[in-house]
Design brief:
The chain is an alpha+beta fold and 465 residues long. The protein has 23 helices and 13 strands. A seven-stranded mixed β-sheet has the order 3-4-5-2-1-8-9. A two-stranded antiparallel ribbon has the order 6-7.
């Protein structure tokens, strides 16, 4: 009979560390996600270990083998090391105590592997494989069976686990997205009852989990779990708020369902997982609840929801401590996602097409995908018409791009030339002149140097009147 240990290949770096720890009289085990992913056939570049050795002893043992070591996690018993090309984290057995007021535990070293595995988040992460010679596979809480069933359970009671570390509830939703697992009923009940406890977790940690969830293979399932349990009310309240807003076309039960469908359709158009695009899809309609109005005949409108949505997206992502680049890119995509609907009849001027491209800038490929995904109507004729209209817009962009290098649209004169032509020093007037020439460039295409000089002089004369 094949043992689970036979299904887990031991990397050369792990075997080398195992021999060193054994020679020093200590245990060393591959643990957590490293073991889980190996059993699932998923690649895992980094290695996680548990040991009975204390941090000072770990440093002494790994020092001769590592190209580098780091101690940023030493207060939690973790030593990092680069062994060959592998990043390894080696943590002393833990049996932590929590004050239940914050996520930070009082670090207490454990005396056994069993105690260490019991404090882990889920049973499928509470398995271990010894690398100190005997290849003993440890699974005291049935993690292998749960992994085979695709079931997420906790080693102890979920209430105890989540009280110790509420972030684990968010991790459950992340694993639903990334691993395709389902949540055991008792875990689901505890998540629902304890959702507000997530409020004591730092924004940075929440951000990391939400990013990983969104980049998973089934983010819709993870997001639905957040909403159904009430966790989204704490960390992403704009999402459940969409359930209250029927869309203006009457084609969906609510904007929430539409949003999740747009997210799925965006993913189908990706070349590779795109965090910015997925966030934009998730947040593109969050301005609708605040702008909903009822018109005669029962029609619902959401005027300027893209403007409000961009502001709300920026606010939410700032609160999650996201990078400035991600915040600005997502907000701009939300702001621009509705502009195409003014093009449905193909009546845009070349100037309008230029503005669409220039306002999108490097986000244009993402904007293309977002706009196409925003069509979720079941009316095949309407969907085909929208798709054909966007095809023509992309064709026009390509034609203008070939002629004018739209991605690099600039006025025909730069700031130095403006100052030379007008004989003025640097200052606000130069900026105004630059904006005027840029507007002309957008409206008429390339002017050429001589015409640009003439237009600039005429503008300057009007300013002096």
């Amino acid at each position: 009979m094949t043992s689970p240990a036979d299904l887990i290949p031991i990397p050369a770096e792990a075997a080398e560390l195992g021999m060193a720890f054994a020679a020093a009289g200590h245990e060393l085990h591959l643990v957590g996600g490293t073991v889980r992913d190996a059993l699932m056939g998923r690649p895992d570049e980094d290695l996680d270990f548990a040991t009975d050795a204390r941090p000072a002893d770990v440093l002494r043992i790994v020092g001769p083998l590592a190209q580098a070591t780091w101690t940023t996690g030493i207060e939690f018993g973790t030593i990092g090391a680069q062994v060959e090309n592998r990043m390894c984290e080696i943590t002393t057995y833990r049996a932590d105590r929590y004050d239940r007021m914050s996520r930070k535990p009082e670090v207490v070293y454990g005396e056994s592997l069993h105690d260490d595995l019991r404090r882990r988040d889920f049973t499928m992460n509470a398995m271990a494989l010894s690398v100190t010679g005997d290849r003993t596979f440890s699974d005291p809480f049935g993690g292998l069976a749960d992994l085979a069933r695709g079931l997420l359970r906790t080693p102890g009671t979920p209430e105890e686990s989540f009280a110790d570390d509420p972030l684990r509830m968010l991790r459950a939703a992340r694993f639903v997205s990334t691993l395709g697992v389902t949540v055991a009923s008792e875990v689901l009940d505890a998540m629902t009852a304890m959702a507000t406890e997530l409020g004591r977790i730092t924004a940075e940690r929440v951000q990391v989990e939400l990013h990983k969830l969104l980049l998973g293979r089934a983010p819709r399932a993870g997001l639905e779990l957040l909403v159904d349990t009430g966790l989204a009310d704490v960390v992403l309240p704009e999402l459940p708020a969409l359930r209250m807003a029927a869309d203006e076309h009457g084609q969906h039960k609510d904007v929430y369902a539409h949003t999740l469908q747009v997210l799925e359709q965006v993913i189908e158009l990706e070349d590779e997982p795109d965090l910015t695009l997925r966030w934009a899809a998730l947040l593109h309609d969050i301005g609708k609840p605040a702008t909903r109005a009822f018109a005669p005949g029962g029609r619902v409108t959401f005027h300027h929801h893209e403007v409000v949505g961009a502001r709300l997206a920026r606010k939410r992502l700032k609160e999650l401590r996201c990078s400035k680049q991600l915040i600005e890119d997502v907000a701009q995509l939300v702001f621009l996602h509705l502009r195409f609907y003014g093009y449905r009849d193909g009546e845009w001027t070349d100037s309008a097409v230029r503005r669409y491209v220039v306002d999108a800038g490097p986000l244009l490929p993402r904007l293309h995908r977002l706009v196409r995904s925003d069509c979720t109507t079941r009316n095949k004729r309407k969907a085909a018409a929208l798709s054909a209209a966007y095809d023509t817009l992309e064709d026009r962009i390509a034609e203008l791009q070939a002629k004018e290098e739209l991605a690099a649209v600039r006025p025909d004169l730069d700031g130095n030339e403006i100052m030379a032509v007008l004989d003025i020093p640097p200052g606000p007037l130069v900026g105004k002149a630059y904006k005027y020439l840029l507007a002309l460039r957008m409206e008429h295409g390339p002017l050429g140097h001589d015409r640009a000089v003439e237009e600039l002089k005429q503008w300057y004369e009007r300013q002096a009147r």
